[in-house]
Specification:
Largest sheet of chain B: 9 strands, mixed
Number of helices of chain B: 11
CATH topology of the largest domain in chain A: FAD/NAD(P)-binding domain
Distance between the termini of chain A: 40 Å
CATH class of chain B: Alpha Beta
Helix content of chain A: 25-40%
CATH superfamily of chain B: Vaccinia Virus protein VP39
CATH class of the largest domain in chain A: Alpha Beta
Number of domains of chain B: 1
Shape of chain B: globular
Strand content of chain B: 15-25%
Structural class of chain A: alpha+beta
Radius of gyration of chain B: 19 Å
Radius of gyration of chain A: 25 Å
CATH architecture of chain B: 3-Layer(aba) Sandwich
Distance between the termini of chain B: 42 Å
CATH superfamily of the largest domain in chain A: FAD/NAD(P)-binding domain
CATH topology of chain B: Rossmann fold
Number of strands of chain B: 9
Largest sheet of chain A: 9 strands, mixed
Shape of chain A: elongated
Order of helices and strands of chain B: HHHHHHEHEHEEHEHHEEEE
Number of strands of chain A: 20
Oligomer: heterodimer
Strand content of chain A: 25-35%
Number of helices of chain A: 15
CATH architecture of the largest domain in chain A: 3-Layer(bba) Sandwich
Helix content of chain B: 25-40%
């Protein structure tokens, strides 16, 4: 989409708003050095950025804001395949709070629901002691989202739905007077402050961020960084981000199960805490499942080199065998293949000693090309806002995937920021000012910090294999297992209930 | 705050509260037998020590006080922070007043903001989609300069006619029928005016019939002396010293009694006369507190009669 440039900016400003808006979106001329003025420029077209832009366009108070969304990738043509047999390895577990937000902004209707899988129960167990906790479906009713713990959804399915929603909101009759320029395949070259005003009378953009792109310059009343963990927007405002690397890699893959499930069956998510990190099997439609295995970089490297049948055997071993056996099978001096090892070790391992749930399915295959890994980090920005700048999603925080919260926190940020801007618009605020943005920072920073802290402590607690730590955490898990109301509360938190 | 509550204060504080609060207030003492609007009338008739033109409401001591504060209007942590925090409530109160009108929604509103200062309210009103134009005036030249400089940092406010600042007193503002306003606002202004009655009369002459005169000020009570003078200015210093003159504070009842005396104004309860008490809670912000108009900060709104000139 071509960027528009105004020739005589001041003359345009003197025109009535509706005439001006028409001119603004149709005038294509070349005046280097004059930035186009936007109310909101969002860098990053991932789930956080797209849901934020959709939320603005879906609300009557904010739909007239002139919005630009910039992404270096081609987000308008890349869509998830409709091949029912192939699922992306990039899946997220959407909490009911996230689903509610997506419904509120009208994006859920565009989701390909044949490719999402709600789950209703969770089995979590301790790999060292075998103590376990089972979260039952709460008043599950088939066909409703009542009792749903979370819904597995491919990130591509979600972004495609958000993009469709955004386009529906900004084109045709429904989109009249509502601008959202999607500048994909557009690289942000730099972000600078605007020039000093030419005279004492002209507009002063010297405190406005100007985004320099391969397609032109955009001046932003509010610049939103939805641009990921290495956020250029965060670097532009010089907000420090603190945290640590876990020394773990997350290995993801799309798996095939022996059993094929019907769409309305009660589904269970499984997670086992090994000393090297948690391993989780999350249900996808039919006989598919999504794997997230946090482990040492050495193990991750070894896993990625294994042939498919050995990879499957190794994943099964990680759920079914004792941790010492799992480590042994991944050690460099292992001469026998994991498949052969699993064949004799599995029958020799009693499920009561490992805590293996009786319903745990047999894994039969791995989708070709779906195995990938990435380093795991904890990062939290000192603040989410600056003058004319706000950070959302991974630009603000990076979290360990063990609770599946990363994307959900990003959607919650998008919702909170859009709400704050609605409030600002209704009260005549400059939406880039601290008066408008402070509320977003105070609402989300503390909430995210609490979630980051809990997940980080869980990760550390379950990385230990020293006796006293294991006993006490097992006692804790067993105690929770016996207290149904605590479990109910935990489920509520995991499900994003407020 | 009741007398019993004052008595519970530490001795030194109590003494300060009592001397300052109860001695210089002939108005409160005489309220039992004089109409309360006398407060407004009497000051009208008094010759002030400060020099002023015969036609102007402008107090020159106030002008130089606000000149000195001009640079901090738009600093988020500066001395105007409380005003910024109060601004959303101003819009909420205006909406509450307008809710009683059967106005055509498409009819955009013309605002006149008197005593606009650095433009906190004027800018925000100019940004609303329901606004046609805002004219904002202030007698202090330096704050108008600050307001104009800040206006230039937002291109949407530079649209012709959207927001116009004038360095003038209300008495010097040209008055003609087609240039009258739907809403005239006086936020935190009356307590800075020495002769409020003629000042308010010049304001209503600029209102369209059916238009609203909306403002906020502080009731003259021991509580407001304690919170706005002692705590805010002297102890916490969140408001610059010398900002307020407690003797110029006005009770909501005095406002209403004055309004009843004006033939152009309509003051029937709830429809043409609105009042809302607000309290600043540190760490939380401004909150509406029912009944607090009697002893603290409050908003008032009064409508010009539809059949008025």
């Amino acid at each position: 989409m071509a960027l528009t440039r105004s020739v005589a900016f001041r003359k345009l400003l003197a025109l009535p708003p509706d005439v001006r808006r028409r001119l603004w979106s149709s005038a294509v001329s070349v005046t280097p050095g004059k930035p186009d003025i936007y109310d909101v420029v969002c860098i990053g077209g991932g789930p956080a950025g797209l849901s934020f832009a959709s939320a603005l366009k879906a609300h009557s108070a904010t739909r007239a804001l002139k919005v630009a969304l910039i992404d270096a990738q081609d987000i308008t043509t890349s869509r998830t395949g409709n091949d029912g047999d192939a699922y992306s390895n990039r899946c997220s577990s959407l909490t009911p709070a996230s689903s509610r937000f997506l419904r509120k902004i009208g994006a859920w209707d565009h989701i390909n629901t044949g490719r999402v899988q709600p789950y209703h129960a969770m089995d979590v167990w301790d790999g060292v002691s075998g103590s376990k906790i089972h979260f039952d479906p709460r008043r599950y009713e088939a066909g409703s989202d009542y009792g749903v713990v979370a819904t597995m959804c491919e990130n591509g399915n979600l972004t495609a739905a958000l993009l469709q929603r955004l386009q529906a909101l900004t084109t045709g009759d429904a989109g009249a007077g509502s601008v959202c320029d999607i500048l994909d395949k557009t690289k942000v070259e730099s972000i600078e402050l605007g020039p000093q005003p030419e005279t004492e009378e002209t507009v002063d953009l010297s405190q406005w961020p100007i985004v320099m792109t391969s397609q032109g310059q955009l001046a932003a009343r509010l610049l939103v960084g939805a641009d990921g963990a290495n956020s250029p927007v965060r670097q532009f405002v010089d907000i420090p981000s603190h945290g640590w690397d876990y020394g773990q890699h997350g290995v993801v893959a799309t798996l095939e199960l022996e059993q094929t499930f019907a769409a309305d069956e009660v589904r269970t998510a499984f997670q086992r805490f090994l000393p090297t990190g948690p391993i989780a099997l999350l249900p996808l439609p039919g006989n598919k499942a999504s794997l997230v295995w946090s482990t040492s970089p050495q193990h991750a490297a070894k896993l990625k080199q294994l042939p498919p049948n050995d990879f499957v055997a190794m994943v099964s071993a990680a759920f079914r065998l004792m941790p010492v056996d799992v480590n042994f099978m991944l050690s460099p001096d292992m001469a026998v293949t994991p498949s052969e090892e699993l064949r004799w070790r599995e029958p020799a391992t009693s499920p009561s000693s490992t805590g293996l749930p009786s319903t745990f399915p047999w894994i039969t295959g791995v989708q070709e090309g779906s195995i990938a890994s990435f380093p795991l980090r904890m990062r939290h920005a000192d603040t989410y806002t600056g003058h004319r700048v706000a950070l959302i999603g991974d630009a603000a925080h990076t979290i360990h995937p063990l609770a599946g919260q990363g994307l959900n926190l990003g959607l919650a940020d998008a919702e909170a920021l859009a709400n704050q801007i609605t409030y600002g618009m209704e009260h005549g605020m400059d939406i880039g000012s601290s008066w408008c943005l402070d509320g977003y920072n105070s609402e989300r920073w503390a909430a995210n910090n609490a979630m980051l802290g809990v997940v980080d402590k869980l990760q550390k607690l379950y990385s230990a294999s020293a006796g006293p730590v294991v006993w006490s955490r097992s006692l804790g898990l067993e105690a929770v297992e016996r207290m149904s109301w605590v479990k109910g509360a935990l489920m509520g938190v995991a499900a994003g209930a407020k | 705050m009741s007398l019993a509550e004052v008595l519970r204060l530490p001795v030194a504080l109590r003494r300060a509260t009592l001397t300052k609060a109860f001695i210089p207030q002939p108005i409160l003492a005489s309220r039992a037998y004089t109409p309360t609007f006398q407060h407004l009338q009497r000051r009208h008739g008094t010759t002030d020590a400060a020099p002023h033109t015969t036609s102007s409401s402008v107090n020159h001591t106030e002008v130089s006080h606000f000149n000195a504060l001009a640079s901090s209007w738009w600093d988020p942590q500066g001395s105007s922070r409380l005003l910024h925090l109060m601004n959303p409530l101003r819009h909420r109160f205006i909406r509450r007043c307008l809710a009683y009108d059967d106005r055509d929604e498409a009819q955009k509103l013309r605002y006149l903001d008197i005593g606009c200062g650095g433009g906190i309210f004027a800018e925000s009103a100019a940004r609303l989609s329901t606004t046609r134009s805002v004219t904002a005036i202030d007698p202090t030249p330096e704050v108008i300069a600050v307001a104009k400089r800040h206006q230039r940092t937002d291109p949407s406010l530079l649209e012709a006619g959207r927001l116009t600042y004038l360095n003038t007193a209300i008495e010097d503002l040209p008055n003609h029928d087609d240039g009258r306003y739907d809403i005239i606002t006086l936020f935190e202004v009356i307590e800075h005016i020495q002769r409020p009655s003629p000042f308010l009369q010049s304001c209503i002459s600029h209102l369209k019939p059916g238009g609203w005169l909306i403002g906020s000020t502080i009731a003259r009570t021991p509580v407001s002396w304690f919170t706005t003078k002692l705590v805010a200015e002297d102890l916490l210093r969140i408001v610059p010293r010398g900002t307020h003159n407690w003797n110029q504070y006005i009770q909501p009842q005095e406002m209403r009694d004055w309004a009843r005396m004006q033939p152009e104004l309509s003051t029937s309860d709830g429809i043409d006369w609105q009042v809302m008490g607000v309290v600043y809670v540190p760490g939380v912000g401004w909150r509406q507190v029912k009944g607090s108009e009697a002893w603290g900060n409050y908003f008032f709104g009064v409508r010009k009669r539809w059949d008025a000139e």
